[in-house]
Design brief:
Blueprint (H helix, E strand, L loop, with lengths): L5 E6 L21 H11 L4 E7 L10 H17 L1
Parallel strand pairs: 1-2
Length: 82
């Protein structure tokens, strides 16, 4: 069976709370935004078919830090995968 592509689900709990403070279960020593963008670049060599970002609560994101991190990840993915 041949792999037709991969679908990426990005759970923002993957990021350090300094990068994404508004998550259900913050993970100290998680990835930084820069490490996430590097990972997306590495994954771009694979056949990409879709992506979603989960575990964000915009009403609780007072300074939009988590929302901006998620938005940037989506924008970076578009640049690498499209």
């Amino acid at each position: 069976m041949q792999l037709s592509g991969f679908y990426l689900t990005l759970d923002v709990d993957f990021l350090d709370p300094a990068t994404a403070p508004v998550t259900e279960t913050p993970k100290p020593d998680g990835f930084t935004s820069r490490e996430l963008f590097t990972l997306l670049k590495v994954l771009s060599s694979l056949k990409f078919i879709g992506m979603d970002v989960v575990e964000i609560s915009p009403p609780l994101d007072q300074n939009d830090i988590t929302s901006f991190a998620a938005q940037r990840a989506i924008t970076e993915a578009w640049g690498y995968f499209l």
